[in-house]
Design a protein that fits this description.
9 helices; globular; disordered N terminus
């Protein structure tokens, strides 16, 4: 017999935050932490890719359990989950590329196909991809599956552009920022809100990764040489400050680029 949450929305409130400028700011910062934090743990701490993946996957499972058990949007739980998804998504791509030596062209195509399949099944079952109606367990599971693969796809596509195609970190930051600006402009001119939201969400991953590499990598590789630990700590500090502000702030933020 089907359970209640499989048949109709439960009484829980929407589990996804309002999509404001702060939302996009934290999202980009979290993607940068995913890139630099993953590198710091795997290389500088010496955990290696496998152990980093295992630890971060375990933490992600714990955060997801907290998120799924909550009956409403709780900023620190939601954004902790996003940061951990960012790290795990980065590790998935890095493992395929560095350990299994799978071409970035192949992994980018595979992640894009998988993400498209998730969206197709999600829409076939729920008849909507709106992030404003994540009010059932099933919709939330679809949502987090999509989020994981947007990070994996964004990492692969970003590495493909900046490394395999030779754009470099500087050009990568400008190129991905320009693409996001074009999508925002299309949204403002009346383009489909759901489509523009998810396209922008995917592109913030390579933007954040390129930004993280630009700040953390040595000057010999085209970076600014700040190092992964200082870059990660700086961005994490800003994330914590913004999430704390969201938690205690009472007046709703003005709506910016929103996916309906």
């Amino acid at each position: 017999m089907s359970t209640t949450w499989e048949l109709r929305p439960s009484p829980m409130l929407n589990k996804v935050p309002e999509v404001t400028l702060i939302f996009w700011t934290i999202k980009i910062l979290s993607t940068t932490v995913g890139e630099t934090g993953s590198d710091y743990l795997a290389v500088h701490v010496g955990l290696g890719a496998n152990l980093t993946m295992a630890w971060m996957a375990g933490l992600l499972i714990g955060a997801l359990i907290l998120q799924l058990c909550a009956r409403r949007y709780i900023p620190w739980i939601y954004w902790l989950t996003v940061v951990l998804v960012s790290i795990v998504g980065t590790q998935i791509t890095d493992t395929l590329t560095d350990k299994l030596e799978i071409s970035l062209y192949v992994s980018t195509a595979a992640f894009a196909t998988t993400l498209a399949a998730i969206f197709a099944v999600w829409y076939a079952v729920e008849r909507t991809l709106s992030i404003h109606t994540i009010v059932t367990m099933r919709r939330e599971l679809f949502y987090w599956a999509a989020i994981l693969f947007t990070f994996a796809l964004g990492t692969a596509a970003g590495d493909l552009a900046t490394e395999a195609l030779g754009l470099g970190f500087n050009v990568g930051v400008v190129a991905f920022a320009a693409l996001i600006a074009a999508i925002a402009a299309a949204y403002a001119l009346g383009a489909n809100a759901v489509l523009t939201f998810w396209l922008a969400y995917i592109l913030t991953r390579p933007l954040g990764a390129s930004l993280g590499d630009l700040l953390s990598q040595s000057r010999d590789y085209g970076g600014l040489g700040l190092g992964t630990i200082y870059t990660s700590l700086a961005f994490l500090t800003v994330i914590v400050a913004l999430v704390a502000w969201l938690t205690f702030e009472r007046d709703p933020s003005r709506r910016a680029f929103v996916g309906e």
